[in-house]
Inverse folding.
């Protein structure tokens, strides 16, 4: 029994070690750039303190609009992905049809292509239909990667639900839509949460497509962050502050799905 | 078991759809007229002149007249929204936040001036060039790309535009001859391709206060046999570096170094070389703004056609002078710079001299001026004057008079043919506005990136000069013409520039010798030129490679590539800084 506290103690130590870069990021975000460059505050808890970096982000429209742009295409992408993937995953999980396995695997193979391959075609296409520089363009481009992933995750969760549930609902006289929305979805809501998380994470940190498919109107936060790099050096303070703020939505999403996350990493195939 | 709370998820989804719908609607149409009927442009112009655009080289009446021209010329475009982009610099921040507002209130044209990393600006530019789709209505792009723009035909030649379809929106008082960077943005065909917007140089930086100390001066004289001063050649630079790093070692109790540089394997390592390091060593031919027929990239042109970078084809990228340049860079980094320097990038190393323990730096961008004159820094006196100065870059043993001596960069307005004409015209108005004489002096004082001769000669610059460590004196001197950007010998800057840093990094890491690194680089440059030649898309100034010959034959011919010198370390030579400044003030190049 005495081994348990020690194991826990080690775990805490390891957790602390993992949190160090985050501490460092927050520390930089709360220092003026001149102090960072002068190497002040290298020791724990010393050095100048300022909230000016955060003030810059919250008062400069370029910065907060960048956040809003990113959040809007991430939201659109997540909603499209989940709403398209739900029926698709249900079909793969419950019906057998010609080529279903191949089609299922082909979906995943979309994720194997690097996003760079799709850059120019997407750019040409969206320019031609007037979608260039809109959040919708980025959201749709990201769907290419998030929809297959969502189908795979949801299929795993759905297959874990016994078919007898479907059959009982049918015997009780429920229609398919009623069963699907009122009975089935609540059962796999953990899976939906995990899917939302993965869609969110992919779309939130993806840089290549988001950068190429936007100009000045829908510029995502990851692109705005590059403005801290210039011929007169890097504004580390503001960059770190933006970094801290980009972590927050991720933390929020993780918080909501924390209990189902491990299952999600296994594409739902853990019972 | 069916859990409670069924239907919660669908509700969340519906809410999400509504939310996303709101967030997703962004106006991208541009060009939509907004209500501008009641705007008093004349009053706005007067207010901006009184509250912001002072000082100016123009009298108030002339400023108002110039702004009135903008108001009238912009009338057809009133209510339009245009997008322009540039890298992040103080000058561009001022444009993006203040000048766009002024421009809108004076012309009714709303400009979104985006600031992104320079590499991303190039990427957006290339996207538009390759796809033909309008991404931005105008770009501020370094004049290093002049050889690229003048050959590919994507960029609007401004000379033609101003005389032709843009004549009605070209400012009569633009005064092109006043731009000090005009020759940098002129193609081999004599046409102006870009309009300078900001300009900065790469100079020698040193601690004036230390160089004035009698004890240090005496110790230096005793050890090296000549005076401590601004080094004229690399021998002297090396001696001074050795003096501070290995002999002085500490000043006022702090470890000091006689050299600062950077050496991390990173794209910014390429600038360390493509920003004229080889020309400082003396690898190329004489010629201003760039050596002809061989420039500082070691690329030879025949007429206007790039003919090769290897010595075998008449280039100098792997000649003795280029190898010497690389070797000296490496030696100095290892022997004289602080140990952490070799792990730094451009951005990380740049602010280091401001911390007060660096005696001199051979390769220093004037963009760091503003960060080095802030009160309270270890390199600033109590009265606000700097303890440091900038001075001409020293040159290597292969250098001869008439050659460029360093790097200068002018970020310039660049317009693409694929931008619709009305948007291009509106953007051209904005570009002229931010460089107009009404605005330019104020902008120069804010961003310290001078572009106009008239601004440099102004009273306001004289007043600012003592705080700026020699910036004004340098730009006023006739010497400044020896600092120039990449020239027209480089037919495709993005493709060729990316070859440099991996090869330099291989040498720095010790994986290959400097000779092998430059051989590989020169060979790779030749291959890019060869591909461009085969593609045949660059017209009559596109590359046409010379047939390879025995390198010894090329080295024996006069000019670059130059044969190896028997003695690459001639005696050190220095000049007193104050004599140099005096010469500059009198209009001499020293």
């Amino acid at each position: 029994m005495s081994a348990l506290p020690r194991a826990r103690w080690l775990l805490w130590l390891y957790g602390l070690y993992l949190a160090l870069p985050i501490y460092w990021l927050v520390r930089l975000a709360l220092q003026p750039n001149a102090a960072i460059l002068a190497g002040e505050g290298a020791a724990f808890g010393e050095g100048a303190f300022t909230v000016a970096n955060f003030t810059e982000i919250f008062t400069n429209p370029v910065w907060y609009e960048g956040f809003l742009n990113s959040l809007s295409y991430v939201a659109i992408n997540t909603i499209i992905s989940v709403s398209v993937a739900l029926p698709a995953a249900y079909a793969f999980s419950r019906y057998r049809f010609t080529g279903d396995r191949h089609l299922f695997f082909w979906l995943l193979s979309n994720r194997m292509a690097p996003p760079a391959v799709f850059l120019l075609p997407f750019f040409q296409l969206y320019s031609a239909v007037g979608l260039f520089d809109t959040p919708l363009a980025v959201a749709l481009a990201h769907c290419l990667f998030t929809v297959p992933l969502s189908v795979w995750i949801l299929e795993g969760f759905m297959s874990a639900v016994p078919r007898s549930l479907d059959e009982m609902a049918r015997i009780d006289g429920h229609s398919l839509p009623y069963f699907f929305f009122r009975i089935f979805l609540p059962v796999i809501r953990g899976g939906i949460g995990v899917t939302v998380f993965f869609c969110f994470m992919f779309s939130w940190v993806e840089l290549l497509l988001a950068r190429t498919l936007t100009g000045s109107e829908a510029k995502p936060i990851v692109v705005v962050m590059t403005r801290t790099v210039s011929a007169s050096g890097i504004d580390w303070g503001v960059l770190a502050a933006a970094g801290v703020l980009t972590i927050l939505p991720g933390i929020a999403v993780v918080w909501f799905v924390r209990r189902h996350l491990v299952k999600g990493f296994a594409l739902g195939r853990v019972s | 078991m069916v859990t409670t709370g069924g239907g919660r998820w669908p509700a969340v989804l519906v809410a999400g759809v509504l939310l996303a719908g709101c967030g997703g609607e962004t106006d991208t149409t541009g060009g939509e007229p907004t209500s501008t009927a009641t705007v008093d442009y004349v009053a706005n112009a007067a207010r901006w002149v009184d509250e912001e655009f002072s000082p100016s080289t123009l009298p108030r009446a002339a400023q108002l007249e110039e702004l009135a021209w903008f108001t009238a010329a912009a009338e057809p475009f009133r209510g339009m929204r245009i997008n322009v982009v540039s890298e992040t610099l103080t000058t561009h921040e001022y444009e993006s936040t203040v000048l766009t507002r002024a421009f809108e209130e004076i012309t009714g044209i709303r400009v979104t001036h985006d600031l992104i990393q320079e590499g991303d600006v190039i990427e957006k530019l290339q996207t538009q060039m390759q796809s033909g789709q309008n991404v931005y209505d105008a770009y501020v792009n370094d004049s290093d790309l002049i050889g690229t723009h003048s050959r590919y035909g994507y960029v609007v030649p401004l000379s033609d535009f101003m005389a032709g379809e843009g004549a009605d929106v070209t400012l009569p008082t633009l005064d092109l001859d006043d731009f000090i960077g005009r020759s940098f943005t002129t193609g081999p065909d004599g046409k102006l391709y870009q309009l300078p917007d900001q300009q900065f140089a790469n100079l020698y930086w040193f601690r004036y206060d230390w160089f004035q100390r009698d004890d240090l001066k005496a110790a230096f004289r005793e050890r090296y046999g000549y005076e401590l001063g601004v080094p004229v050649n690399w021998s002297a630079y090396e001696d001074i570096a050795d003096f501070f790093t290995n002999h002085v070692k500490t000043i006022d109790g702090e470890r000091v170094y006689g050299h600062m540089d950077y050496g991390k394997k990173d794209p910014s390592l390429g600038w360390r070389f493509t920003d004229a390091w080889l020309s400082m060593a003396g690898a190329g031919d004489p010629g201003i703004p760039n050596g002809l027929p061989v420039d500082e990239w070691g690329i030879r042109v025949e007429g206007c056609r790039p003919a090769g970078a290897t010595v075998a084809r008449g280039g100098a990228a792997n000649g003795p002078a280029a190898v010497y340049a690389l070797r000296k860079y490496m030696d100095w980094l290892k022997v004289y710079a602080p140990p952490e320097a070799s792990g730094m990038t451009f951005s990380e190393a740049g602010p280091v001299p401001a911390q007060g323990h660096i005696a001199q730096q051979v390769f220093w961008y004037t963009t760091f001026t503003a960060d080095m004159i802030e009160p309270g820094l270890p390199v600033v006196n109590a009265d606000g004057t700097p303890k440091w100065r900038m001075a001409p870059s020293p040159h290597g043993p292969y250098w001869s008079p008439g050659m460029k001596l360093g790097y200068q960069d002018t970020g310039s307005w660049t317009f693409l043919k694929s931008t619709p004409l009305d948007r291009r015209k509106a953007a051209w108005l904005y570009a002229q506005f931010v460089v107009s004489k009404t605005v330019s002096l104020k902008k120069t004082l804010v961003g310290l990136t001078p572009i106009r001769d008239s601004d440099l000669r102004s009273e306001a610059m004289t007043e600012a000069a003592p705080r700026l460590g020699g910036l004004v004196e340098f730009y006023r001197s006739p010497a400044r013409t020896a600092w120039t950007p990449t020239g027209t010998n480089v037919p495709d800057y993005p493709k060729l520039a990316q070859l440099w840093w991996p090869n330099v990094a291989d040498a720095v890491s010790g994986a290959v010798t400097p000779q092998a690194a430059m051989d590989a680089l020169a060979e790779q440059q030749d291959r890019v030129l060869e591909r461009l030649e085969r593609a045949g898309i660059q017209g009559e100034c596109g590359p046409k490679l010379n047939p390879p010959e025995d390198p010894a034959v090329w080295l024996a011919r006069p000019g670059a590539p130059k044969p190896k010198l028997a003695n690459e370390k001639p005696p050190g030579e220095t000049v007193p800084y104050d004599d140099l400044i005096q010469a500059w003030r009198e209009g001499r190049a020293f």
In short: Chain B is about 40% helix and 10% strand. Chain B touches chain A through 54 residues (CB under 8 Å). The longest strand of chain B covers residues 195-207.
